[in-house]
Structure formats: C-alpha cells, structure tokens
Amino acid sequence: MGLDKPNAVAGAGTVTHWTIPVSMLILSVAIAMAGDLGREWLRYDRVWIAQGEAWRFATAHFAHLSWSHLALNGAGLLLVWFLVGANYSLRHWLLVTGVIVLSMDGAFWVLNPELHWYVGMSGMLHGLLAAGIVARFPRLEPETLVLAALMTIKIGWEQLAGPVPGSVLTSGGPVVVDAHLYGALGGVLGALLARIRVRPRPAI
User: Taking Cα atoms as reference points, which of 80, 49, 63, 192 lies closest to residue 147?
Assistant: First the structure.
C-alpha cells in the first residue's frame, strides 16, 4: 500500500527515507520538552521576528501548542511519509521541505500581516503530501487521484468556510487554515523544482 512506488523523479527509489520525519519528530519533542518558555521563544511571532529573531521562521514549524497537538501532527507525519516518503530521494526531499518552509513563511509575512503568531507542523504536512502527489503525475493512479481530490476539497472548504469541523478541538487551539494552503502550494513548487535535472556541460 501507499504511493511509494518507483517514479520518474531523478534519484527516487522504492526505499523510504525516514531521516527527515524522524529528525522532525525529534526536534519537535525537544521543543515540547522545553515547555511554554521554549514555545514562546521558538514560535513564529511577527513582532519578535521584526526585531531580528529570524530563527523563528524555521523553528515555528516544529513547536506545538501541547503534547496532544504534537501527537496529532506526529501521527499525520508518519502517515504522510508512509504514503509518499519513497517518491523522492533524500536530497530531493530536503529541497522540497526547504521550499515548503520558505513558501509558508514568505506568504505569512507578506499576505497575513494580521497573523501575530503561529506554531505547528500541519502546513508542512500538507506540503509534503502535495509534493508526493505531484511526483505521481502524469501517471495517474486511483489512489493518487483520491488523495489529490480529498486535499483539494479540504483546502477549498477551509478557504471558504473555515476550519474543518472538529479540527480546533483536536488541535487544542486556533487553526490557521492559510498555513495548509501555503504549505500545499509550497509542496507543489518544491516538487516541480525537484523535477529539474541539471545537464552536465559538454566537453570543449
């Protein structure tokens, strides 16, 4: 099961690379163990970022509201990686992850000036899944189409009607639905960049 079959992306294979999700979980647990103080110091906070604390752009995606919030995102990360983790090489996943983070942070800063703070991995999860789905195109398979449709419907619902019912309760705090949209778009962009192959220069 899963969308972890060989595909056309250069360097991808059938072996799922677990380095990235394991590293993400370890970092998230370490931040959670720092408690409220750690979350305050590492969350996306527009005021403090404007004063030079740029590290918050990166660390915000691994800070969580609570242990239950972390457990929910952690389970989601493992599920996403099971489905699409083998669709890229480790090098390409690093590229995709970086593009997702940059896309989300840039969009937050430019398009959401009213967003004072943010924590959580959900936006990144949407991006990783979106990138994995793009890797399966143009060879469309039923499970790929189902996942693509479900993600599109979910993000569309959130943009039109707000958070999916029950998501606020399960996360334990406010849900920034734009994070899911920006993460997914960043995942698509990262997937497209991962498809670019640099051709060696011909010998002169």
Answer: 80
